[in-house]
Amino acid sequence: MPRRVLIACLVLIGAALAIWLALGTDAPVHYTGFVEGEERILRSEVTGRVVSVNFGEGDLVPAGAVVAQLADEDIRSTVASKEQQIAVQSAQIRRQQEQVQLLENTLREAVSARKAELAQAESAARLATSSFGREQSLVTSGASTAQLLDEARTTRDQSRSAVARAQNLLTEATAREGQVTVARHQLEVLREQEKLTRAELAQLHVTRAKYAIVAPAVDTTVQTQFLWPGELAQPGSALLSVLDPEDKHVQIYLPVADLAEAKVGRHVEIELDSAPGRRVPGVIAFVADEATFTPEKIETRNDRLGQVYRAKVRILEDVAQFKPGTEGNVYLASAPDDSAEQHAREAR
Questions:
Q1: Does the domain at residues 75-208 carry the CATH identifier 3.40.630?
Q2: What Rg, from alpha-carbon coordinates, does the chain have?
Q3: Would you state the pLDDT for residue 8?
Q4: In CATH, what is the architecture of 27-68+220-347?
């Protein structure tokens, strides 16, 4: 038998023996994993020079605290300008309201006066017309003179002219209603302009708030500082990375053969290399839908042969004591645990 073939056979026999011994052992089922934290990157949304960074690496950051401030002189000046513009527009609106009110009052009074004058002129015209008719009858009967008839005719004609003038004046007064309509339209234009300016000011306030970089709504710890005072931040520039001390998990990789046992909600125990002999309860909170190859630095009991599924183990106790990057073993418990399943559902 050629030497090369003999060596290959010995290797295959050795591998088969190792797999048989591994499968035949009574050691508890476990997987090697490492601790990960949900790191959050705090980024700038605007362009500005960094004025201050209020927390350094390792510092505890209270929820919602301002972690960094960018120079905002330009936008503050723009905000002040918009506020002044709104003040001017408000004054213009008040003056236009007064003008509209004055025009409406003047129009109402003028129309009322012209209607009264017209009514008086029409009454006088009716009286003059009646008097002229009587004088005509009297002249016919010889009881009046032609002079009195002429005077009655003149009075009648003058009263008719007075009615015509009163009607013209009423028409002119009514025509002023167009001025009121124009003034009202100008008032609406001013109000719309002010409304638009206020919307622009509100948007400026939103943008101005972005010059203060705010921490998440939970207490976190600074992991890395990317920018220092004096440096220029651009939209998307990372300033700090922070970590929620209570938001950590252990990442493991499950062989296909173990998926039936190591499913979401399965109770596990975590033993870190940094604390041998001490096991902390956990629960499998996530199993990937797609298989992958085990990363180079992770070893499973199947010795990275074939594809595996990435899984996350939620830590149920002493979460703050787990340091990201720490490695250890995850052991399956003897049976699923109802409370662990509840924890897994809450974690999802």
A1: no
A2: 47
A3: 40
A4: Beta Barrel (2.40)
